[in-house]
Amino acid sequence: MFSFFQKKAFLADYLHGLVDIHNHILPGIDDGAKTVDESLELICEFRDLGVTNFICTPHIMHNYYPNTRETITESHAQLVSELERQNVDDVRVNFSAEHMIDENFESILSDGKVIPLKTEYLLVEMSYLQPSISFENAIRQIISKAQYYPILAHPERYSYFHNRSRIYESLKRQGIYFQLNLLSLAPNVYGKSVQKCTYKLLEKEMIDFIASDVHNIRQLRAIKEVQLPNSLLNPVLKVIENTIQTFY
């Protein structure tokens, strides 16, 4: 389907203006940037790609990263203060969170302690090892009770779905939006099976949004090397534009 000899385009050439709605840039709060200096390094390299608008999404994950609005606000304020001190005035940094659907999720949802993207979207994830047992109920609660639009982070990375292609159609019917990781477009970061799944989801026009999910400078530099077959360029550009239009 995808010839090795097809001409390719560098993804980085088309990221100008992207609103990065999923990243781990905030310092010292999860498995992303450890210090403000690391955060600034990531932001500066993103600026080289024309990406200057960020919604930072640290993990909220029970027993691992038990973040709250208070801990995230504190980390965000630290980063914003340093940006101001260094007169970086062409960057916009907001925050939300990436919510793991685990044993604690429905509790924080019902208590109003989740942190949406903008006001109406909620970024959620599952374990890479197995689907969340309470996933379907959690989605119902997100939509019907909390009245958010759920966005599933990196659906292409859940390998237990790769041989169950109809599961993606089922998830979409439930009202779930899909957010693709930029690095899933490459074969050598998350693996060829993830790339294959990514291509299929794009071909079927099932991807709604795209983001970096960057944790460190190594991943960001890997984004600069990602190449796309020309046959996928328009589908990816549509997703980039939809992300900008929705979250700018």
Question: What's the gist of this structure?
Answer:
The protein has 248 residues and is of the alpha/beta class. It has helices at 36-48, 69-85, 105-110, 135-145, 166-173, 192-203, 217-223, 230-247; strands spanning 8-10, 19-20, 53-56, 59-60, 92-95, 98-100, 121-125, 149-153, 177-181, 209-211, 227-229.
Q: Which of globular, elongated, flat, extended, rod-shaped describes the shape?
A: globular
- Please give the share of residues in helix: 25-40%
Superfamily at the CATH H level? Metal-dependent hydrolases
CATH architectural arrangement: Alpha-Beta Barrel
Low-confidence stretches: none
Structural class: alpha/beta
How can the largest sheet be summarized?
6 strands, parallel
Q: Strand arrangement, largest sheet?
A: 4-6-7-8-9-10
Walk me through what this model shows.
This protein is 37% helix and 16% strand. With 248 residues, the chain is α/β, with parallel strands linked by helices. The protein has one domain: Metal-dependent hydrolases (TIM Barrel, Alpha-Beta Barrel). The model has no long low-confidence stretch (mean pLDDT 95).
Pick out its properties:
248 residues, alpha/beta, TIM Barrel, 6-stranded parallel β-sheet
Would you spell out the secondary-structure blueprint of this structure?
Layout: E1 8-10, E2 19-20, H1 36-48, E3 53-56, E4 59-60, H2 69-85, E5 92-95, E6 98-100, H3 105-110, E7 121-125, H4 135-145, E8 149-153, H5 166-173, E9 177-181, H6 192-203, E10 209-211, H7 217-223, E11 227-229, H8 230-247
Parallel strand pairs: 2-3, 3-5, 4-6, 6-7, 7-8, 8-9, 9-10
Antiparallel strand pairs: 1-11
